[in-house]
C-alpha cells in the first residue's frame, strides 16, 4: 500500500486530453505517493478524501464543507495561478497550506495582454471583418481616427508579476506607464519605468487600463460603474486577470454608452458566457476564451510543479508557493533547500 494518498476530483482541468498524471508522478513516485481520482461532486469527494494526505484541487470547488471533513490532509495544491476555487480562509483555519503556481506562465499571459492591447488599439478584429466582407476601402479611413501609439499612457490596476512583464513589453513601444497597487513598493514600479499612482489617476489619465487584480473576495467587483465613468472616452480596457474583479454589467454599459471606446478581454465574470451576453455581439469588444496562459509547455510545466509541491509537503518541507504562508509558522514543516532539477517546475 502506498505511503501517501493524494486525492483529486475525477476529470481533467485546463487540458486538451485526459491525464495519466505522468508529469505529476515524476516527483511523487519516488516518495511512494499515489494519485487517486474521486467523484467530482461534494458528497462523493468528501467520502473519498477525508483520510487523504493531500488534495490536488481541480474541477470542483474545494469548499469549507470539504475542508472541514479532511482528517489527515497536509496540503491542498492547485495547478493554476488563481486560488478562487479553494476556500483559503477555511484551509487556514485548519492549518492546511494551499499552494498554487504563480510564476509558471507569466510570459504567456504578458504576451497575451500585449496582444490584446495592440489588437484593440489597431482595431484588428474590425479590420479583419472589413476585408472578409468586401469592405476593403473602409479600413484606412477607420484607422485615421486612431492616434499614434507612441506617447499614449498605459495604466495598470495591480502591479504583480504579469503586469511587470507587460511593462517590459510595452516600454519599447514608447508608452508612458503608471500603476495602482498599494501592496507594491514604489521603488519597484520605478525600476520598471512605471509611475506610482492612485486608482483615480490611473483610470482618468490612461489610454489603456490593464486589469491584473487576482480573484480574491476583497477585490470582487473592484471596478464598477463609477470607475468606468472616470476613464477617457477613447480608452481601451484590457483584462487578463479574473472576470469577477469587474462588474460586468457596468462594463457593458460603459461600452454601450461610449464612456470607453473598447474592451479586450480574456476573462469574463461567467465562463463560458451565456449566448445572450451583450459582449458577444459588440463590435467594440475583442474576446478570447480565458486562454492567456496556454502554450505548448502549459500542461507539462504546471503538472510537474504540482507534483513537486505535493512532494515537498508530504516529505515535511515547506512548499515553494504558499498563498496562506502564516500556517507554515505553526506546522512542523521545515524549510527546504533549493536543488538542481534537469526538468524543474519552471523549465
UniProtKB/TrEMBL annotation:
Enzyme class: oxidoreductase
Molecular function GO terms recorded: (S)-2-hydroxyglutarate dehydrogenase activity; glyoxylate reductase (NADPH) activity; hydroxypyruvate reductase [NAD(P)H] activity; NAD binding; phosphoglycerate dehydrogenase activity; transcription corepressor activity
D-isomer specific 2-hydroxyacid dehydrogenase NAD-binding domain span: 114-292
Pfam family name, one: 2-Hacid_dh_C
Entry EC no(s): 1.1.1.399, 1.1.1.95
UniProt keywords, alphabetically: NAD, Oxidoreductase
GO annotation, cellular component aspect: cytosol
InterPro entries linked to this entry: CtBP (IPR043322), D-isomer_2-hydroxyacid_DH (IPR050223), D-isomer_DH_NAD-bd (IPR006140), NAD(P)-bd_dom_sf (IPR036291)
Example GO biological process: L-serine biosynthetic process
Annotated family: Belongs to the D-isomer specific 2-hydroxyacid dehydrogenase family.
Protein name: C-terminal binding protein
Taxonomic placement: Bacteria, Pseudomonadati, Pseudomonadota, Alphaproteobacteria, Hyphomicrobiales
Amino acid at each position: 500500500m502506498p505511503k501517501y494518498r493524494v486525492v483529486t476530483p475525477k476529470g481533467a482541468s485546463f487540458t486538451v486530453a485526459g491525464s495519466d498524471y505522468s508529469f505529476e508522478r515524476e516527483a511523487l513516485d519516488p516518495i511512494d505517493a499515489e494519485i487517486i481520482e474521486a467523484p467530482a461532486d461534494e458528497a462523493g469527494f468528501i467520502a473519498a478524501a477525508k483520510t487523504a494526505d493531500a488534495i490536488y484541487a481541480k474541477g470542483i470547488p474545494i469548499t469549507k464543507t470539504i475542508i472541514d471533513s479532511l482528517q489527515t490532509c497536509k496540503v491542498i495544491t492547485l495547478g493554476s495561478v488563481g486560488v478562487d476555487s479553494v476556500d483559503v480562509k477555511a484551509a487556514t483555519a485548519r492549518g492546511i497550506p494551499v499552494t498554487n503556481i504563480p510564476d509558471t506562465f507569466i510570459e504567456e499571459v504578458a504576451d497575451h495582454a500585449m496582444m490584446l492591447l495592440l489588437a484593440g488599439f489597431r482595431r484588428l478584429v474590425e479590420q479583419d471583418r472589413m476585408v472578409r466582407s468586401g469592405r476593403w476601402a473602409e479600413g484606412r479611413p477607420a484607422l485615421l481616427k486612431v492616434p499614434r501609439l507612441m506617447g499614449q499612457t498605459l495604466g495598470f490596476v495591480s502591479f504583480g508579476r504579469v503586469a511587470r512583464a507587460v511593462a517590459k513589453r510595452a516600454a519599447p513601444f514608447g508608452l508612458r506607464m503608471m500603476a495602482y497597487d498599494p501592496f507594491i513598493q514604489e521603488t519597484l514600479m520605478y525600476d520598471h519605468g512605471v509611475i506610482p499612482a492612485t486608482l483615480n489617476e490611473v483610470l482618468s489619465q490612461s489610454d489603456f487600463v490593464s486589469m491584473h487584480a487576482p480573484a480574491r473576495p476583497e477585490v470582487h467587483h473592484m471596478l464598477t460603474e463609477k470607475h468606468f465613468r472616470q476613464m477617457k472616452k477613447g480608452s481601451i480596457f484590457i483584462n487578463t486577470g479574473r472576470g469577477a474583479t469587474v462588474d460586468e454589467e457596468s462594463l457593458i454599459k460603459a461600452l454601450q454608452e461610449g464612456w470607453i471606446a473598447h474592451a479586450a478581454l480574456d476573462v469574463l465574470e461567467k465562463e463560458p458566457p451565456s449566448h445572450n451576453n451583450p459582449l458577444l455581439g459588440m463590435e467594440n469588444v475583442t474576446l478570447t476564451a480565458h486562454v492567456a496562459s496556454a502554450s505548448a509547455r502549459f500542461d507539462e510545466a504546471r503538472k510537474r510543479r504540482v507534483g513537486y509541491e505535493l512532494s515537498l509537503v508530504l516529505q515535511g518541507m515547506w512548499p515553494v508557493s504558499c498563498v496562506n504562508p502564516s500556517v507554515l509558522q505553526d506546522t512542523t514543516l521545515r524549510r527546504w533547500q533549493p536543488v538542481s532539477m534537469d526538468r524543474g517546475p519552471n523549465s
